[in-house]
Amino acid sequence: MLDAAAILQAATSQPNRIPMAGASIAAERCAWRSDREPGARPAFDRTGRTSTPVGPRAEAEKADAEACEAAALEVHCRLIQAQIVTQLVTREHWRRLGFRSLHDFTAERLGVTGHSVQEDARIVTALAALPLLRQAFVSRAIHWTHLRSLAGITTPATERGWLRFALTSTTRRLAEAVKGKRRGARAPGDEEGPDACASCGAGSEAAAAAAGRETTSPNACASCGAANRGAEGAISSPDACASCATNLGGAGEIPNANACESCGGASSAETRACESAESGGSTTAGDDPDDPFVRWVITVSRDGRKLWRMLGDLASRMSGADVPANRVAEAVAAEAMSWPYCDPPSPQLPPHAARANREQAFIRYFEARFGTSEGFDGLRPPPNARIGKLDRLAENLAEADAYEIDNRLRIVRKTMQRIDGQLSAILRTFADRKLHHLLGFANLRLYAEARLGICGSKARALVRLERECQRKSPLLLDAYRNGRVTWLASTALLPVISRRHEHAWVERAESVTLRRLTADVSWALDRADDRRGDFLQPPPPLDLDVTADAMARIDEAEVQMRAQTTSDIGSFSRRVGARISIAIPTSVVSLLEDAIEGCRRAIEPRWRAFERILAHAYLTWMSLPEHKNPVFARDSYRCQVPGCSRRGMLHAHHVWYRSHGGPDFTWNLATVCNDHHREYIHRGYIRVEGCAPDGLVWELGCRPGQEPVMRLRGDVYLRK
After folding, report:
1. What's the pLDDT score for residue 659?
2. pTM of the predicted model, to two decimals?
3. Nearest partner of 491 among 469, 470, 511, judged by Cα
């Protein structure tokens, strides 16, 4: 087994590779603004030169170099992680560790969503069959952003055309081409033969006939005029192409085909996910171009927001799985539309059809003014940094067992958290001082995707984590950088953490499962939304049943009054100002707005009608018959195995086996899902003993003659 402590120390203790750029630059955060008039913008010409003093531009380039190196290290760690995850997925090692699904394993052990790591593994697996893309990535001709777009649609037959297109187009244009390909449109990589144009994708004969003009060069495209055709379809040298300034190798040829083996680039296949799943965002947004996700916000009373959170738990109970907020909103709207008192208006066009895209408008303005939106041509290429000792984690994966795979993944994740923690300081400096404008990037998202090769949503999430932690709790940021608190736990703590209770919340995040931590955060938010509650709440006692306590705090009589259409509910909403913000499809927005208008009285505010809808849905769902077994209600209709997210297919497990004389008393019964009951507990992968519900001790990842991977009392760690 590899020495985990030695590898982690060597991987994370590299002051020369990952300098704390945020410290040196943030100390002079506003110094450059004194060089010019307040509110003035630096003037650029088309070559990227600025008329302002050299200081700000030089400082931006310095921060850019540090950000590029940190991002290159992060991508290198991601490649190592993807290779290990490929082995994990192929052999389903998470089952041996006591987890029902990959998502449960990654959320609890790594602190990220299973979708994000699985998609990274699929990208690396696709590279095994795409040597041109693989070597272009190794030589830094393309970024991870390009791989995420291309790996899911590129085949060996279309690889060369897609690569040419990626080298001669912006990331935005490439993303649009990939989206059109998924819709069935013609794509640059679809041209057969070596004569496809790298700029427009047109074949020479067809393009010449369509354009009706002669080409200036036998290798020039008749459609766009770019001299970018190489003989025999090879990528031509920079001297032969004026439109493509980037090539794959020093002489315009693909480097050594075996070079990627040293960086670990042979592992797994489809891409369409981005790191937004890692930051807690929805990964389904944008899947349907005709029904995109939009941010829907409404201001309600604090009691109404507490009722909204309770509806999310009720929806998960009824469906048998955790339900996202957009599905809860759709179910609430459908429940309201079936209400006899609801009189919805006539259907209208989706609200996004008439909205102007501010981001795209600013990008067009920036491009028209400075001649670019994704960086000046004079920028130095980003480095190809790596952590040599971390490569050992990708060796001999076929011989590694489940416990070794788990150990290696945790080492990589801690290294990535340290790099991301330092990258967040640099990105915050870019965001606060608009340094990306000095480099020719219209916004931070384009800088992250086109320059650093990371997802724009992840860059924004890192900036948000840096800002919130510096304002509320520097201790949480330090715990994240040191690997004590995972990414999902850190983002879960942001709404409730404060300097007054930061030590208590960080200790709680280290000592309980992610499932219990999210329940504690929800409990604290409910307490803060009480009429006499304090906004800054400490974590609840460990022996408190937070779900039962939250249900007990709902006043049934007040909810019934809110649901009535003839009563004045103004006296029940003494504090208005709580925001509910969710990302939902535009079709659901239309349905929800129609439901609000249908339940709204003449001069009533929208938030009162929305709270009436919530109250009606709550009363309707609570009136449904419960399961006859009281053990399920006691355990909140959730599998009690630590880290399990399953709510459906539940069994009542006898802790003291019934075949060994165990009674049917409630203290001997624990709610577990079907998979954990049949495939894990009775196979010996999981052991449980004690008295339900509070005295159960769980051991996950059991193996003969050795300690289990995890030992918990309920959701509290005894050994991690």
Report:
1. 87
2. 0.77
3. 469
